[in-house]
Design goal:
The complex is a heterodimer. Chain A contains 26 helices and four strands. A two-stranded antiparallel sheet of chain A has the order 1-2. Chain A has a two-stranded antiparallel sheet with strand order 3-4. Chain A is an all-alpha fold. Helix content of chain A is 72%, strand content 2%. The N and C termini of chain A lie far apart (51 Å). Chain A is globular. By secondary structure, chain B is an alpha/beta fold. Chain B has two domains: 200 residues, Rossmann fold (3-Layer(aba) Sandwich); 165 residues, 3-Layer(aba) Sandwich (Rossmann fold). In chain B, the strands form three sheets. In chain B, strands 7-6-8-9-10-13-14 form a seven-stranded mixed β-sheet, with helices on both faces. In chain B, strand 3, helix 4 and strand 4 form a beta-alpha-beta unit. In chain B, helix 7 packs across helix 8 and helix 11 crosses helix 12. Classes of the chains: A mainly alpha, B alpha/beta. Chain A: It is found in: Cell membrane. Chain A: This is Branched-chain amino acid transport system permease protein LivM. Chain A: Keywords: Amino-acid transport, Cell membrane, Membrane, Transmembrane, Transmembrane helix, Transport. Chain A: GO terms for molecular function: branched-chain amino acid transmembrane transporter activity.
């Protein structure tokens, strides 16, 4: 019995840590609609800053002062980030801020290494709270008691701030209707800056409070960001009380779960999220998301198939690409093949995101399913590469059919997070099911058939599949099915009035995207010769997202350019410098500011050239505006 | 489009890089280029000292007449901790830079991906750090060799010490991935062979880097084991030590712990380092053999820093490559393999052999007890365990390794 009591209390202490970090994220999203990927980076900065300050400030007063000053300093950095970077891109499509904050996260990871060095740092324990008291005969650390108390205190403080101050009322009003608040003469800019600063303060405080518990390391950001995201989603986006409840639920399930299943922690939080979202599509206390896709409002011009000139241009580009093996060396062709694979993966995701209006955070699931499907076909069935390349899209398709059935019932960020949950569940299966998948030692020896093993042939193979994929998906976009999909995206209500079921159409799109991603995964496995669970992991999904956003989410296939630029940049920088994340992150930030609609999106806006011929912009603009206001 | 985009980008990137490290060495008439790949950006705490170690070795080799008169040049690449990126880097090194062999690796899966690449492309590969047994056994191949004592060897060393304890009821805490899983499995197997009456009463598998140490400590404590095997390291270890100590988890219990004596993991703990744990590690401060002292002196003179275990791995790794290249008098992969098999050489840890039977080096490890001295964690009462004594019989190895 006493074990259950202390386990309960340990769970609560852990919940408080999670909640502190998650409350800020929930607050920021609720008001500004920014998916702040950099939240984990600020959490980590809070911990590093507190570590430095506790070196100079001694004693109990000094310790707590250090924690608070650290959080305040980091909050100021957050405010600067908001004013310098995010303010410029509030008008950009939804999720573009995600790309910007992702770039910032990459930069912070390397900056932290430059400033604080690579070694793990262990700060002091909280003065006076080093020991433990006995609870039913079992020791409970006094610091845990402090954390357990701190959770509800912060929750109460935030509630009072939001409900009992004028500032809080304005913030809530802005959450409900930004334009109305602006019309009443409130300067939204400062409201948003204030909310962002407060959110970052809470994140940094959460990080600083970890000092007495664990080591400060440069892996802190990634280990927390996904977890707090899941917490805010389970709780219901924008609901701070919901985040509190979710943190408690997840932490307690973990504390008791490990008593029965000692390896459950790996997947528990994602299982939780999947179950909650399937039962309650908007989390515990979240409000239903209005159907209809925000980013659709940005597409002022409806998409057109390529003009004849554009087709000729594309054909010339493909012809040049096909001639590359005559002057590129082995390594260049290898990188070229990697780019082509990235192109297939990115356009499959773009089909889902841009045409379908479904932002998937877990597209790696289908990439990985294809890769594992192919690798297992080779390893267990002795299949040749040709057969494996046919099996891979099928495994991707089947996976998408299974998971898509649950996912398309949701929309918006909830949809995104359910796809992430399924991807993580798949990842943990690949990771844990050692006899079948080889665990994290992966599956080795997946090499191409003899005829395709030369770098040039394999490059041509990937090029051919990439051209086929882009062409096929473009044809699909401009087919009746594509129009139905866009109709559903822009106005669910009107589309259903003329007989299109949102779920059915989107389900089909999800399956198509899954099949193409699976094809990319298989080509990837044969290119590298081996496959590991990281093909299913979050970074793989994020890479896809970055490629689509970089190319331009409001374009049909801008991600082709996004994929090539991003892959080239990653490989080249990694080869040239150990600080590849700093440069790559900086580059992303610059591109975000320079091309607020993505590279292709912004360029086509500027030139309106043959590739992006402008036709009938007037009425279409009105149409999209109506769709936009309906979505709001 | 692909090429032009790439070029445009490359130009853009060049101006963007102010801090880019120029790794290209001046071309001289006679130089032997080798490729090195490691997780520099993902795991700098290990790979920075490691890089210093191999840099020292290269300097010494070239000062000593190089490879039969030729200069040894290392071209080093980052893999970002991802096996896929490691293969890309390997391709760049082999196809573009024309290196004669590959070396490096930290994570087991990166090491395995490189080993498989080596087999496919027929390139010689010496893995430095990856610990997985699969490297030389179940997934072993003709082109791959490994330097560090494997999981099996380290588990055997610790199991031998554990068998001397009175404890029979054991609990295990290990990170939930291949390294943790196989460390626990081998330790269990070896300990039960040596001491059939031991039983394992509890196990915990926290995810790497995400331990909830309070709950884990209590769950282990509730099973009332007499001894604990720990395989966690890094921030997980810090959290486990803190939460476990506060909760009295380690009181009156024997603890056997993998890697904890390595400066990489022991030093951050400072005065909070656990006392009396039986650990594998690297007590560089108290190893007083002349060959080791020479290494420490040279290292400190060059870098003004003390060596970590990573430094030593990097140093021996490159020294070994130097020996192989000298002996082979050729850069052909088949000749390198022939030279590497049963190569004998001296290291700061004493003489070692690169076994022909399974391509595993007999480098050993220090096993000792942790203590706190002058506010710092140290290893005391340690002995050097020769790796050769902790490998299975040749017949067993032949069963484990595909022939």
């Amino acid at each position: 019995m006493s074990l259950y009591v202390v386990q309960f209390l340990a769970g609560l202490a852990n919940a408080a840590s999670l909640f502190l970090a998650a409350s800020g994220l929930s607050l920021i999203f609720g008001v500004t609609r920014i998916v702040n990927f950099a939240h984990g980076a600020f959490y980590m900065l809070g911990a590093y800053m507190a570590f430095t300050l506790t070196r100079t400030l001694d004693g109990a007063v000094g310790f707590w002062a250090a924690i608070l000053i650290a959080a305040a300093v980091v909050a100021v950095m957050g405010a600067l980030l908001e004013m310098v970077l995010l303010r410029r891109i509030y008008q950009a499509p939804e999720l573009f801020q995600l790309l910007a904050t992702f770039g910032v996260t990459l930069m912070v990871e390397d900056i932290v290494l430059l400033v604080w060095g690579p070694e793990d740092l262990v700060g002091p324990r909280a003065p006076g709270l080093e020991g433990a008291i006995l609870v039913m005969g079992r020791p409970l650390p006094t610091y845990d008691i402090l954390l357990i108390a701190l959770g509800p205190i912060v929750l109460l403080g935030l509630w009072l701030l939001m409900h009992r101050t004028r500032w809080g009322v304005l913030v809530r009003a802005a959450t409900q209707d930004r334009d109305m608040v602006a019309a009443l003469g409130v300067n939204q800019k400062w409201l948003f800056t204030g909310v962002f600063t407060l959110g970052i303060f809470l994140a940094a405080l959460g990080g600083a409070l970890q000092i007495p518990r664990t080591a400060v390391s440069h892996h802190m950001d990634l280990s927390i960001i996904v977890e707090v995201f899941v917490i805010t989603v389970i709780g219901g986006l924008g609901s701070i009380t919901g985040a509190f409840l979710a943190a408690i639920l997840v932490s307690l399930l973990n504390a008791f779960g490990i008593l029965i299943f000692p390896s459950i922690s790996l997947v528990l939080i994602f299982l939780c999220m999947a179950v909650v979202l399937v039962i309650r599509p908007w989390g515990f206390l979240g409000k239903p998301v209005v159907a209809g896709h925000k980013s659709a409002g940005v597409t002022v011009r409806p998409w057109q198939p390529w003009s004849r000139e554009a087709r000729i241009g594309a054909a010339i580009v493909v012809a040049i690409a096909a001639l590359l093996p005559f002057w590129l060396g082995t390594y260049g062709l290898f990188v070229g093949a990697e780019m082509m694979i990235a192109v297939i993966f990115a356009v499959s995701l773009q089909f889902l995101m841009s045409t379908g209006g479904l932002d998937s955070f877990g597209h790696a699931a289908y990439f990985g399913l294809g890769a594992y499907g192919a690798a297992m076909a080779v390893k267990w069935l002795g299949a040749p590469m040709e057969a494996a390349l046919l099996i891979a899209p099928l495994t991707g398709l089947v996976g998408a059919l299974v998971f898509g059935w649950f996912c398309v019932r949701l929309s918006g960020v909830y949809f995104a997070m359910l796809t992430l949950a399924f991807a993580q569940i798949l990842w943990s299966i690949a990771f844990q099911w050692v006899p079948v998948t080889g665990g994290d030692n992966g599956i080795l020896g997946v090499w191409p058939s003899g005829w395709a093993s030369s770098p040039a042939t394999y490059y041509w193979l990937t090029l051919a599949v990439a051209v086929f994929s882009v062409a096929a998906l473009r044809m699909l976009v401009f087919s009746p099915f594509g129009y139905a999909l866009r109709g559903v995206r822009d106005s669910t209500l009107r589309a259903s009035a003329i007989g299109f079921s949102r779920q059915r159409v989107q389900y089909a799109a999800f399956a198509v995207a899954g099949a193409f991603a699976g094809l990319a995964g298989a080509l990837f496995a044969f290119l590298k010769g081996s496959i590991f669970p990281d093909a299913l992991s979050i970074p793989q999904s994020v890479d896809g997202l970055v490629m689509v956003l970089l190319g331009g989410i409001a374009t049909v296939s801008g991600s082709v350019v996004g994929a090539i630029v991003y892959t080239a940049a990653s490989i080249w920088l990694m080869s040239q410098t150990d600080l590849s994340r700093l440069v790559l992150g900086g580059l992303i930030v610059v591109l975000v500011v320079a091309f607020p609609k993505g590279i292709v999106g912004s360029i086509s806006d500027l030139v309106g050239g043959p590739l992006f011929r402008r036709r009938g912009a007037g009425p279409a603009g009105r149409e999209a505006a109506v769709a936009g206001s309906e979505g709001a | 489009m692909g090429l032009s985009m790439f070029k445009t980008f490359a130009r853009f990137g060049l101006t963007a890089i102010l801090l880019g490290s120029a790794l290209a060495a001046p071309v001289s008439a006679a130089e032997i280029k080798i490729g090195e790949i490691n997780s520099y950006s993902a795991l700098p705490a290990f790979t920075e000292p490691y890089r210093k170690g191999w840099q020292l070795a290269v300097e010494e080799i070239n000062a000593d007449g190089g490879i039969n008169g030729d200069e040894l040049v290392v071209i080093s690449k980052d893999d970002g901790g991802k096996p896929g990126d490691a293969v890309t880097a390997a391709n760049e090194l082999v196809a573009r830079e024309g290196v004669v062999l590959l070396t490096g690796g930290f994570f087991s899966n990166v090491g395995l991906a490189l080993a498989d690449y080596a087999k496919q492309r027929r390139v010689f590969f010496l893995a430095g750090e990856p610990l997985t047994d699969a490297m030389v056994w179940s997934q072993g191949n003709e082109y791959t060799f490994r330097l560090r004592p494997s999981n099996y060897m380290q588990a055997s060393m610790l199991a031998e010490e554990a068998a001397k304890l009175d404890a029979t009821k054991w609990a295990t805490i290990a990170p939930n991935y291949e390294y943790g899983q196989s460390a626990v499995a081998v330790f269990k197997e070896r300990l039960q062979e040596l001491k059939p009456d031991v039983e394992f009463v509890a196990e915990q598998w926290p995810p790497l880097g995400k331990i909830d140490a309070g709950s884990v400590s209590q769950a282990i404590d509730a099973a009332e084991p007499e001894a604990i095997l720990n395989v966690t390291f890094g921030p997980d270890l810090v959290q486990l030590v803190r939460e476990g100590t506060t909760r009295g988890l380690f009181q009156d219990r024997d603890v056997v712990s993998f890697l904890t004596g390595e400066p990489e993991y022991l030093d951050p703990l400072g005065a909070e380092a656990p006392e009396g744990w039986i650990v594998t590690g690297y007590p560089w401060y108290d190893i007083d053999t002349p060959e080791h002292q020479a290494f420490v002196d040279a290292y400190q003179a060059k870098f003004d820093d003390y060596p970590r275990l990573g430094s030593l791995v990097g140093y021996i790794e490159l020294k070994m490559i130097g020996e192989i290249l000298k002996k082979a008098e050729s850069t052909d992969a088949e000749d390198l393999i022939a030279a590497a098999k049963d190569l004998e050489m001296d290291t700061p840890f004493g003489p070692i052999t690169l076994r022909g039977i399974d391509h595993q080096a007999t480098l050993g490890a220090y096993v000792g007890t942790t203590a706190v001295r002058d506010g710092k964690g140290v290893m005391v009462d340690f002995t050097y365990k020769d790796g050769a004594d902790y490998l299975p019989s040749d017949e067993r190895v032949q069963e484990l390794r595909p022939q």
